[in-house]
Design goal:
Distance between the termini: 69 Å
Shape: globular
Number of strands: 10
Number of domains: 2
Number of helices: 13
Helix content: 40-55%
CATH topology of the largest domain: Aminoglycoside 3'-phosphotransferase, Chain: A, domain 2
Strand content: 5-15%
CATH superfamily of the largest domain: Aminoglycoside phosphotransferase (APH), C-terminal lobe
Largest sheet: 5 strands, antiparallel
CATH architecture of the largest domain: Alpha-Beta Complex
């Protein structure tokens, strides 16, 4: 068996093709910095997998990378993940090569039996990674008849497995942490983009100073929680249902160690879908009941703690989405910003007595956040 044949057996075969938009050139939809992406993807697939490949579809997200689905004459498909020639690090000034992080974290998670796509090969400079094609179905696509509770329970159970995994000491997941500096940077990202850039005006210095102190205190509190492995972007668009019906993970390259409720809050207070609060809390309580004994006793009020983490997560997402719209011209993210901020205000009202810090954020910002104006 040749090397190319060996890998081709692992390439996903899909019979349903996405419908191309009439009259739209794939190349014309690409960011200028990676306009050579189709050629790079085809060249890499030909060298690594053998045979002839053609571009089937492209997809872009909030990062600098592009996804290209390739298809061959046997109707087999593979996903190419492509970066610009000059790759940037992650958020908050991280200097790690994001492509190398995909490779190393994929290998670590796969070795632990977690449901990540298979890495099929890469270009020598890592500008192109070839990954198993997981298909077209995201968890978000299953909301037609309400919340797919069984799938959410499955996603939460996978977090138990992830948090209990013992990784090698040199695994990149363990060499990075959600320290107080990162928590503070993410809170302040909301102030910078979710408030000031969105409104076009800087906050008065008195309010900015007040928020900075509140955010620093919260960052210290959240960073002091027990640390577990964290996916860091665990939501319905990063959970896929593969052609065999299995739940799979994507976009995990920023994984690190951090708060045990971070991924749970990200999933249950998702930016892209609305989950009934009774269903949300039922799922959280079931997840917590199956958690490790030391985690169950780590927080005096676990419900308030997960609400606090959810507030942070939604504020950060709102800030990121404003940046995506204004700096990257990704206008589709604009529709999700009002819902995120409305949910933050609802959390503040629900937990006002148990978490006075909510009002320390919402009340000073009411004149500057349209969704919070009374």
């Amino acid at each position: 068996m040749t090397f190319a044949t060996h890998w081709r057996l692992r390439v996903c075969s899909l019979k349903t093709r996405p419908t191309a938009r009439s009259g739209v050139s794939i190349r014309n939809t690409l960011p200028a910095v990676i306009e050579d992406a189709p050629d790079l993807a085809i060249e890499t697939a030909r060298k690594v997998l053998g045979g002839a490949w053609a571009v089937d579809a492209t997809r872009r997200d909030g990062s600098d990378r592009l996804y290209v689905r390739l298809r061959n004459a046997q109707d087999e498909t593979v996903m190419a993940m492509i970066w610009p020639s000059q790759r940037k690090g992650g958020e908050a000034g991280a200097d790690a090569d994001p492509a190398r992080m995909v490779v190393e974290v994929t290998q670590a998670l796969a070795s632990a039996g977690l449901p990540v796509p298979q890495l099929l090969g890469q270009r020598d400079d890592l500008r192109v990674l070839l990954l198993e094609d997981l298909g077209h179905t995201h968890l978000s696509d299953l909301f037609g008849d309400g919340v797919p509770v069984d799938r959410y329970a499955e996603a939460l159970e996978l977090l138990h497995r992830f948090q209990r995994t013992t990784f090698a000491t040199n695994c990149p997941i363990l060499t990075r942490s959600y320290d107080s500096g990162l928590w503070h940077w993410e809170f302040d990202h909301f102030r910078e983009w979710g408030v000031e850039h969105r409104s076009g005006e800087p906050l008065p210095s008195r309010i900015a100073g007040h928020l900075d102190q509140v955010f620093r205190d919260l960052a210290e509190r959240l960073a002091s929680a027990p640390a577990v492995p964290v996916h860091r972007d665990y939501h319905c668009r990063n959970l896929m249902i593969d052609p065999l019906g299995r739940l799979r993970w994507i976009d995990y390259q920023d994984a690190l160690t951090g708060h045990p409720f971070y991924d749970v809050a990200s999933l249950l207070w998702d930016a892209y879908v609305e989950i009934d609060n009774d269903v949300r809390m039922m799922l959280f309580e079931e997840w917590l009941s199956a958690a490790a004994p030391d985690l169950k006793t780590a927080f005096a009020d676990a419900e308030a703690e997960v609400a606090l983490v959810a507030m942070h997560r939604m504020l950060k997402a709102a800030g990121r989405f404003v940046l995506f719209v204004q700096q990257k011209s990704l206008g589709e993210f604009a529709a999700h910003i009002p819902g995120l901020l409305t949910r933050v205000e609802a959390l503040a009202a629900t937990y006002r007595d148990r978490l006075p810090v909510f009002d320390q954020i919402v009340e000073p910002l009411r004149p500057y956040v349209p969704e919070w104006r009374t």
